[in-house]
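The methods section describes the discrete structure representation at length, but only in general terms. The central task, working out the structure tokens from the amino acid sequence alone, is never made concrete. Nothing conveys this as quickly as seeing an actual entry. For illustration, here is how one protein appears when written out as sequence plus structure tokens:
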Amino acid sequence: MKASFVDTGSIVVIATTFVVFLVALFTKGLTHDLLLEIGVFLVSVKLIIMTYKNGVHADKLEKDIKEIKELIMQK
């Protein structure tokens, strides 16, 4: 069974950050403060993408280790 790397917490972080970004867009307009909100949003998304990639990499390593163990047991 394949694990899901995008968990509920990640979805909540993305949604919350996006809502705050939209609120800032309508309250601040296109100002310098909006760039800060965009930065926060992008950092949140980048961290979640990194978490996903780390999960995929960990699964691959686990699979490789299992294959190595099986090869060792056969000898």
In short: The chain has one domain: 8-74.
